[in-house]
Amino acid sequence: MTRRGLQIALGFLWLLDGGLQLQPFMLGTGFARQIVTVSADGQPQFLAVPVHWAADVIAAHPVAWDVPFATVQLLIGVGLLVPRTARLALAASVPWALGVWLFGEGCDRPQYRSAHRADGGRIARRRPASFDGDGRYVRARGSLDFEDLDLPAKGEPVKAPTPS
Q1: If phi over 0 gives left and psi between -120 and 50 gives alpha, with beta otherwise, what is residue 155?
Q2: Global pTM value
Q3: What ranges do the domains of the chain cover?
Q4: Using 50, 70 and 90 to split pLDDT, how confident is the model at 76?
């Protein structure tokens, strides 16, 4: 793949990201409270404090913040697709991606995110796995097991959740 081909592929990814940023969920307080705030969980204080502050600012006026976020992502995407502006867009994408990584992903700390059933109960929590010194795959203690899923046994009927 050529350098230009990579720029085009990255441009389409930024366009997709900008489009997803304009979903109705992201235009409400859910973006700040369920994505940004959660990314600060388990972070050192020097990272958690600015992430929580940003979540509070975004939650106060979610549309006023989310539309510019999406606009920047869409402009980066379009800029990467236009050969004349590709270098500038690529330069802008680096700090923007670092901000997304910090505030949206919590510096890649997925082990603190949980999956939930429709009735609100916890299904499982993802925890990282790693490799030991000999290069063997080692599951982290408490990593996702099928036993954690609280599913019915094979052949057992599935029960609908009861409203509370």
Answers
A1: left
A2: 0.64
A3: 3-108, 109-127+139-153
A4: very high
